[in-house]
Amino acid sequence: MAASSTAAVHKLRRLGKGVAFYALILGFCAAVLFPVYWMIVNSIQPLNHGMQFPPPLIPKEISFLPFITLFENFPVARWLVNSLLLAGMTTLIVLALAVLGSFAMTFLRWRGKAAFGLLLLMTQMLPEALVVIPVYAMYRNLGLSDSLPALSLVDAAFILPICIWILKNSFDSIAEEIYEAALIDGCSPLGALVRTLLPLSAPGLVAISVVSFFYAWNEYLFAVTLVTSPDIRPVAVGLASLKVMLDTPIDRVLAAALFFSIFPVIFYLLIQRYIVAGLSAGAVKG
Amino acid sequence: MNKPGNGLLLPRSMSMGRRDFLKRTAVAGLAAALATPALAQNAKIKIPLVSWMWNEPGRGDAWRAILAKFHAEQSDVFIEEAGAPFNEFTNNMLIQSQSGKINGALFHTTPDLVVRLLRGGHLEPLQDIVDKLGIGDKLSAAHDHLRIDGKVHGLDIVTVKFGLLYNSAMFEKAGLGAPASVEEWVETSTALTKSPDQFGIYSPHLMSEPGDFWFILQQWAVMFDGVWADGRKPLVNTAPVIEGMKLFKTMYDKAMPKGTDTATANQMYANGRIGQQLIVSAAVNIWSSSGPDIYPSLRSVVPPGPSGKAITRIHPICVNANASDDEKAAAKAFVEWLYKPENYQELMERCLDVVPPYPEAIRQEYLDKQFWAEGYLAGKSITPLEIMGDYIFFNQEFGNVVMDKFSEVLVADRPVEDAMADAQQELEKASERLFEGFTL
Amino acid sequence: MVCEWDEGRIGRSSRPPGNIERMFQSATAEAVEERARQRRGWNRHHSLPYALVLLIVAYLGVFILFPIAQQFLTSFSNNVVGVDKVTWVGLRNYERLFEDEDFWFAVQVTFTYMAFVVVGAVSLGLLAALLLNRKFRGRNLARSAIAVPWAFPEISAVLVFLWMCNPTFGVMNVFARLIPGIENNLNWLSDPKLAMPLVIALSIWKAFPFTFLVILAALQAIPRETYEAAEVDGANPLQVLRHITIPEITPTLLLMAVLMSIFSFKQFTLIWLTTGGGPYGGITETLVLRIYQTAFRFFDLAYGATLGVSGFVIVLGLTLLFVYAQQRQDRARRR
């Protein structure tokens, strides 16, 4: 009797803990997602409802007109394709160079490592607004403005230093013996990098892909300066062009923002599985 | 289910507006669509027109139609769309000018940008066009600060002039008439205010929107015949300016949706929840498409106040001095064509503008039909040069000092006199530095 | 293990030309030198890192280092758009800087803002990563949910934030009124006391998903056996956190602190579009806002560059501290 009741208490306590845990997670996510929810609410209900006090927490009526006007009047699909290309190219450039850079910073021995690490961070310390003038001048002299691949080169340059540091951080957690073992097995340094280190640092690779993809997706200043023809406008510039001289159609901008945010989120969802894959790979290493 | 005046009507009628527009421009648009490839191929020279207007709801279509007409009438010059959204337009031009030259042979500019480009030597004189068309002495005074040695370097494509634009339906419902004096204006605006559902008036007042804030704040002093600066002497602590700021503060406390950004205020205006705006004539165009419910009720009066004056600015079209000779000739050919009365009249009508750069540029029959235009036409024009003196070159920096101090009046109830005295002192201190290296 | 990569080819082809000369030297000499090199701790592929790093430095040089150098030069000129003649003015812009009270105030504001955003974003990211590193149903969903703010374009985040904080009908008033003592709507961004905390909150909301993601990746890289050993020892969760988890991810936390410093130092959109540096007196005007205003609104590119260079020097100081800490960590690890 006594034994079973303590077991029941134990079980109850565990249940209570579980409920508290879920409540915590739920509360946390709700707080984080509320602005997003609010954006959805106000882009699908006529704006006038949101301009009451107190505003209704649940939409009073639903209308997709802001979305319809958006799709009918603006080349949304073209903006999307442009941004996907831009973000994709940027991510590839960053992945290639960041792997090499972090590899050199973590596993290779050479002089000037600290200086290199510092140099990388130094590149991040001047606001883009000040860097954009010389970059523009250079691109114009080279005849490179108004091209998405050229824009992706700039975007990649600006996010690469951070990505090298993040990936170095991930490489640091791999025991050096693993790399040395690969060398003893007859691999070249680059061979060891590709065959041994990369599979083990999957979470880090995922992290920097997401970082660079999101950066290129949202980057605005270079895009709006270097791209002038409407045909190759990426999403960020398209979104900004909804706001005009004397007016901002809030509902349409919210709708557009919502729609365009879906893609980075999907990208993250797709790639997130590899964080788990990376976890199991990490388990092998011990 | 939906009550009349419900927000749902807004988007639905917006699409009506679009259909309307489609009807209006179907012929021109179709002609352009069919003719464009052929024209572009046949044209001897292709030049871009760099502008933010392409994204503007009414104006973008108006300019496309005007270009289509131009292309249909001649085949030597073909003009392409180029540019950036309005918010980034000035930055882009600035960055380009710093890298040597501005892109494109033809561009639109804003009142602040054009004076800098003029000083930077980026603008080609357009006096020959004006002389050829015989409008030299008829050109509006707002062009005066664009002259070097008597030669004008930019020609107006939209004059923006202040007026008090009000929603007459809201006034009638409350049994009120248009305000004739300042006292009446405060009373009317207060009477219209039933927070949070309805407000008497809105004027931008956030530091996050410095462009709009300063642009309109200047007019509040002008209503009392205030002048912000004379030559190099700042005058922000003079009685008329202080009076204007006090009126703003009174309205802010009694009749404005405080802390509201311009975008939100525009939505409230379109939904008939703000009674008045002190705003330029060019904005009416926006309401014709995005506020179809209130558009028929819009009326204007001269900004209330003893002076009866309204700031009048121009957004000029300019020819790039650094373009090749052929491009310049092509660009000038377009400007000359545009400035012929019959073409400019069409531009104004498509843009729903009412203040012409020279008298013949507008048709009286068209003007008579603009039921909302009266107050805009009646105001005595005053130019930026007259109210800002030499600070016309430092308009934003000057404005920032004033707005910063004035914001303290608005949100922390500091006395206007103190704040403006501070601003005056700061501006006097800055004056020497600002004008160094600027021979005016 | 069979390695498909031909190590010799890669290793040799990337050697600098200096080594080619050495190939003509006698075999004995080479062997001696090889031994000497090994004693100095150099491996056979010693030229590889230089080739890799040169590639990256050249790339960054074109796009970032060269423009930075140009801005540095501009700060010694009188380049104001429209000035009669652009000339060198020596240190005059820097003299102006030292007398410029607004600049020093902006530096203070910047540090305050940075401190709160760094601490806030790193601790919130850590908290979220610890929570979501546990196994539970819906974990992937929760992880994705938390990444959402990061995926949002800044412009739209600002729009909805302004909408929420509107003093007249913003939904934040609904929540604020739940707090006892608050009966009226607040002025939010127009309130000099609330403006800064709100901007900081928005910045943390936008930034912490990033720290969360990276910290989560670091947590997952901790070998499971490390925890198992602790469990055998009977350590409670807090002890595990303090003695195992935190030490294991300290380099990551350090890195996140630096990246968040950079993020907050450079933050522009989130502040500019919400308060514009106001409500008055530059209460929320960070250095970057000042730079932007000076260069792009007041057309004073030279002084804008001067402000930029000064900010650069300040953040460089902070970063040196980080690199020093990182090096100590590295040395400890390699020992």
From TrEMBL, chain A:
One of its GO terms (biological process) is transmembrane transport. Belongs to the binding-protein-dependent transport system permease family. CDD domains: TM_PBP2. The keyword Transmembrane helix applies. It holds the Pfam family BPD_transp_1. One of its GO terms (cellular component) is plasma membrane. The keyword Transport applies. This is ABC transmembrane type-1 domain-containing protein. InterPro entries: BP-dep_ABC_trans_perm, MetI-like, MetI-like_sf. Its main location: membrane. Keywords: Cell membrane, Membrane, Transmembrane, Transmembrane helix, Transport. It is a multi-pass membrane protein. PANTHER family: INNER MEMBRANE ABC TRANSPORTER PERMEASE PROTEIN YCJP, MALTOSE TRANSPORT SYSTEM PERMEASE-RELATED. It comes from the Bacteria. It is found in: Cell membrane.
Automatic annotation (TrEMBL), chain B:
Keywords: Cell membrane, Lipoprotein, Membrane, Palmitate, Periplasm, Signal. InterPro entries: Bact_solute-bd_prot1, SBP, TAT_signal, TAT_signal_bac_arc. Gene3D superfamilies: Periplasmic binding protein-like II. It is found in: Periplasm. Residues 1-40 form the signal peptide. Belongs to the bacterial solute-binding protein 1 family. This is Sugar ABC transporter substrate-binding protein. It comes from Devosia insulae DS-56.
